[in-house]
């Protein structure tokens, strides 16, 4: 699919863009089955471990995240590399060639306590260090969050601070007191049906609370950067998996 100019403008002005029902129920069912296998593998250990290029970040019975989950479930790349996903990413980055850095499975089981404080992904991309350059001058990175389960107000949805992206990198890691101000301010919480996708940029402030419902909430996260932006080595893909995106 192709984004309209209005959608691209919304991404850069508001900081995120929702594409509803991008993947079919049958596809989400396949992704869910892969996630079930990943969760079973993660449950075998109580601390972080690696397997086939995948990093399982585990803390006791809690699965914090599974990094480059395609290492143990390669078929997940079929969905991560769908033209429906890569097309919009390519348009937003302004490049027919993009580099994949992130392929993660995120789980929030009932009452497991998994939550993420307010942050910007630019912090994780090593903004301001020798490992990162904003090549296109617009952030050079797009994060894609695909709902594997319906995302509701109770099961740990992601909160976004609209227009926070316009402030650039805020160095929240050095000024953690700023995080509290976002919790008290205005934020948006998209409710997503399984198969819907949220795209957001590296400067968009976001966070999530724990799952207080009785059902699990799973999301499939893939992240892509402009070629040459990243020099950091990530589990499973080193400094990035280069992808040529066909133009429709």
Automatic annotation (TrEMBL):
Protein name, please? Ectoine hydroxylase-related dioxygenase, phytanoyl-CoA dioxygenase (PhyH) family
Under the heading InterPro entries, the entry gives: Phytyl_CoA_dOase-like
Specify the domain of life of the species encoding this protein: Bacteria
Species of provenance: Pseudobacteriovorax antillogorgiicola
What PANTHER family does UniProt report for this protein, alphabetically?
ECTOINE DIOXYGENASE, PHYTANOYL-COA DIOXYGENASE DOMAIN CONTAINING 1
- A Pfam family that this protein carries is PhyH
What does the UniProt keyword field contain?
Dioxygenase, Oxidoreductase
One annotated GO molecular function: 2-oxoglutarate-dependent dioxygenase activity
- Please give the cofactor(s) recorded in the UniProt entry for this protein: Fe(2+)
Q: Does the keyword Oxidoreductase apply?
A: yes
């Amino acid at each position: 699919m192709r984004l309209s100019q209005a959608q691209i403008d919304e991404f850069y002005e508001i900081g995120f863009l929702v594409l509803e029902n991008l993947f079919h129920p049958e596809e989400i069912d396949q992704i869910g089955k892969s996630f079930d296998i990943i969760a079973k593998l993660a449950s075998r250990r109580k601390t972080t471990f690696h397997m086939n290029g995948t990093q399982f970040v585990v803390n006791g019975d809690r699965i914090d995240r599974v990094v480059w989950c395609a290492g143990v479930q390669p078929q997940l790349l079929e969905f991560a590399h769908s033209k429906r996903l890569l097309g919009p990413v390519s348009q937003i980055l302004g490049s027919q060639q993009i580099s994949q850095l992130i392929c993660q499975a995120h789980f929030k089981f009932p009452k497991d306590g998994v939550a993420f404080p307010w942050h910007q992904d630019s912090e994780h991309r090593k903004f301001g260090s020798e490992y990162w350059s904003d090549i296109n001058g617009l952030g050079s990175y797009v994060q894609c969050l695909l709902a594997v389960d319906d995302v509701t107000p109770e099961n740990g949805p992601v909160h976004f601070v609209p227009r926070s992206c316009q402030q650039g990198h805020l160095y929240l890691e050095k000024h953690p007191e700023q995080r509290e101000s976002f919790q008290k301010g205005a934020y948006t919480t998209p409710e997503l049906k399984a198969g819907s996708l949220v795209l957001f940029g590296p400067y968009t402030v976001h966070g999530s609370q724990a799952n207080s419902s009785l059902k699990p909430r799973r999301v499939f996260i893939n992240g892509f950067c402009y070629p040459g932006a990243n020099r950091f080595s990530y589990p499973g893909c080193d400094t990035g998996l280069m992808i040529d995106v066909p133009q429709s």
